[in-house]
Specification:
Blueprint lengths: L4 H4 L12 H12 L6 E5 L6 H13 L13 H7 L6 E5 L6 H11 L9 E6 L6 H12 L5 E7 L7 H4 L3 E4 L5 H14 L3 E2 L1 H10 L4 H15 L2 E2 L1 H8 L4 H12 L3 H13 L4 H21 L8 H11 L4 H17 L8 H11 L6 H9 L12 E4 L2 E4 L3 H8 L7 E3 L2 E3 L4 H9 L1 H11 L1 H7 L4 E5 L2 E6 L2 H7 L2 H15 L4 E6 L1 H4 L3 H11 L2 H8 L9
Parallel strand pairs: 1-4, 1-5, 2-3, 3-4, 6-7, 13-14
Antiparallel strand pairs: 8-9, 10-11, 12-13
Helix pairs in contact: 3-4, 5-6, 8-9, 9-11, 12-13, 12-14, 13-17, 14-15, 14-16, 16-17, 21-22, 21-24
Length: 543
């Protein structure tokens, strides 16, 4: 049985450790000047070389060779560690040995002298998983260590380790492995394994591994079996469920122009072609991150070609900084939500719709979009207009109708202030507080707030507030027990008395012909359109 690549090509010397020169150089100098300490803490992301470096250090301190740059990897002790038969090298998985009894056992055995080696060497992996009492027991050993013992604590979450333990260790922080270093290592492995790997395929493997050398080597190992000696970019994309860079770029263009139909269509085609929704979301986030770097530093990611840099610079100008940041947050959250979604692509579609509801780009981006060859100017959401370079939202049809109606005879003006008499007084008071009510509802549930925003109060009779819903979907949503109770509670709290709500369809819905109304109702039930309505959008019409 052959070994997996990550085991077969595990570094055996400090010089072979990839991307952690700040750690290996310090340890080599400490060995050279006999300044090895009794306890180390190696922290950092998974797959960055923490346990590997600890094993190399174990070889180095026990190496029997006469070389200045240890380990020699030729003596009996070095061979024993490499082959996993060194009895004085003890590795403990703290994830499965979390109790105080396990650490007490360690405390008892650590005092015995090493059997063969110069030092008894302990590696405690995932040390942050130890219980509080186990840490207390370990602390005693760290305070009074025997001279023949060295301990390395490895963790991916150093913030979970008590300060009393941290203060007694020499700490080294391992970093995610840089892209170029990872590609160089993969290229070297491919040559020695007799694999022909396209440069684009290596680049995608390295990016997919997000700084973890172990993940990159495991993926290359899998691809070597899949590709049969030749690994192409298309093969990597098929195995990972990724999409082409052109598809991601086009999707970002649709985001910039707020073209919902084209964007959702692009997502649908990618999923139909076999793309994994979570992988698509990750690639989109990575691309948008590049735009963010481009916009804030003007340089962008270091791995871009000149052609890519020019294209991304154009796209970056199509977003304001605020909108770009919010869009990245939306798709980053979608990456997590994909796992639990009933339809895997739904979080992506929701994120896209919500991102297009963000404020429009500034004048610089608009001008750039107009001047870009072959590009259509950004599409504004219905109800927006530009005045003197500023984007404003026009009042809804209902608010326009309300403004057009003459004030009732019972409303009188006194010194510029409007007061209400009779039945209009509660309604006027509710309208005056409506903004505050919407803010309170948004704090409790932003989706309900997005729906009720288009359901203005029509009347107040006794303790009943009548809301005028624009579409049947809005009415049905607010009539759900949970939504209704939330709205009633917030209205009652701000108005200072108990109110109940009921919903009616607005006049504009009543004026539609029956066939048109059925079309609107059917469209509002579509999952994607329904999601857009929940996020505060509206149906501009049925074509």
């Amino acid at each position: 049985m052959s070994h997996a690549f990550y085991r077969k090509w595990r570094p055996r010397t400090f010089a072979e450790v990839v991307g952690q020169d700040h750690v290996t150089q310090t340890l080599r100098n400490a060995l050279k000047h006999s300044r090895i300490v009794h306890a180390y803490l190696f922290s950092g992301p998974r797959g960055t070389g923490k346990t590997t470096t600890a094993r190399i250090l174990a070889k180095a301190v026990n190496c029997l060779g006469d070389r200045v740059d240890r380990p020699c990897n030729e003596c009996l002790m070095c061979e024993a560690v490499d082959e996993g038969r060194a009895i004085d090298l003890i590795e403990i998985d703290a994830a499965s040995h979390t109790g105080v009894d396990d650490i007490r056992d360690l405390r008892e055995k650590i005092n015995f002298a090493p059997s063969v080696a110069r030092y008894k060497f302990y590696i405690i992996d995932e040390v942050h998983m130890l219980s509080g009492s186990a840490f207390n027991a370990l602390l005693k050993t760290l305070e009074e260590p025997p001279s023949h013992a060295i301990m390395v604590l490895a963790t991916t979450e150093p913030h979970k380790i008590p300060a009393t333990v941290l203060s007694r260790c020499q700490r080294f922080d391992f970093r995610p492995i840089p892209l170029e270093d990872m590609m160089a290592r993969l290229r070297n492995i491919a040559v020695h394994e007799g694999l022909e790997v396209q440069e684009g395929a290596l680049d995608l493997v390295a990016r997919q591994s997000t700084g973890s050398m172990r993940d990159a080597e495991s993926l290359l190992d899998q691809l070597s079996s899949y590709g049969g000696g030749e690994i192409t970019l298309a093969q990597v994309q098929t195995m990972l469920g990724t999409v082409s860079s052109q598809a991601v770029k086009d999707l970002v263009d649709h985001l910039a122009s707020c073209d919902v139909a084209a964007g959702l269509g692009q997502i649908g085609r990618a999923i139909a072609d076999g793309a994994d929704p979570r992988q698509l979301s990750k690639e989109l986030v990575e691309y948008l991150r590049g735009l963010l770097l481009m916009k804030t530093t003007t340089l962008g990611p270091s791995y871009l070609t000149e052609e890519q840099r020019t294209e991304m610079a154009r796209q970056a100008k199509s977003f304001t900084l605020d909108r770009l940041v919010s869009t990245i947050k939306l798709f980053n959250q979608a990456t997590t939500d994909v796992r639990d979604a009933s339809r895997p692509q739904l979080p992506l579609e929701l994120a896209f719709v919500e991102a297009t509801l963000s404020p429009e780009p500034d004048m610089e981006s608009a001008a750039t979009s107009h001047s870009a060859p072959g590009k259509k100017p950004p599409k504004r959401m219905e109800g927006e207009k530009t005045i003197s370079g500023q984007v404003e939202r026009r009042p809804s049809r209902f608010s326009q109708e309300a403004e057009a109606k003459p004030a009732p005879a019972s409303v009188k003006e006194h010194g510029g202030a409007v007061t209400a008499e009779g039945a209009m007084a509660p309604l006027k008071r509710l309208q005056d507080n409506w903004t505050e009510i919407l803010a309170a509802i948004k704090t409790s549930n932003r989706h309900v707030e997005a729906v009720i925003r288009d359901c203005p109060p029509a009347s107040v009779e006794g303790d009943v507030v009548t809301l005028r819903a624009r579409y049947p979907f809005h009415k049905e949503k607010l009539e759900e027990d949970r939504s209704r109770k939330l709205v009633e509670d917030d209205i009652s709290k701000i108005m200072g008395q108990s109110y109940r709500i009921k919903c009616i369809l607005g006049p504009s819905a009543g004026r539609q012909d029956p066939e048109r109304a059925d079309e609107m109702k059917s469209l509002a039930e579509d999952p994607v359109v329904k999601a857009g309505l929940e996020l505060g959008g509206e149906i501009g019409g049925v074509q």
